[in-house]
Amino acid sequence: MTVFKISAENTISLLDSTQQTGENSGETFSTLQELGALAERWPGSRLIEIWNSLPGVEPVRRFTSRQIATTRIWNAIQHLQTSDGAEKKAPAPKKAHTNKAARAVRPTAGGNTKAARVIALMRKPKGATLHALMRATGWQTHSVRGFISGHLKKKLGLKVRSSKRDGERVYSLKP
Q: Is residue 111 domain-shared with residue 65, that is, in the same domain?
């Protein structure tokens, strides 16, 4: 039977059942029910810290309930294995760095999709009028403007230039 040990620093270690668990530097458990009993005494923030420190999990800010938290932690630590009777600790999580500079520019749509047609029209030297984009896609004006703002600017990170020519709105892509 496998025994898990959790330290005061929220590090979960895996002990083989033959190893001594005499060190009082942490609490031990071997079943989901034992983990649940321990978790009853812990603040909710500790469950969140434990979950977020596990490798390969999506970090959370809160759990719906203590039972859900303990079940998710239990399922996540089941992949830990001992080798040669040695104690194995869960490695520290990798910090996810998400900022606008890292996301930068995504690849543009290819093929014969509506997105590809819009981009091709906007890449022309004189750009494309709002009505030309509407004809190419079959969309209404608000849909074209929403696509340009949401998909091209925000999602793909393209630089879009908007101007008026002869009283008509013209969109083009900055080189």
A: no
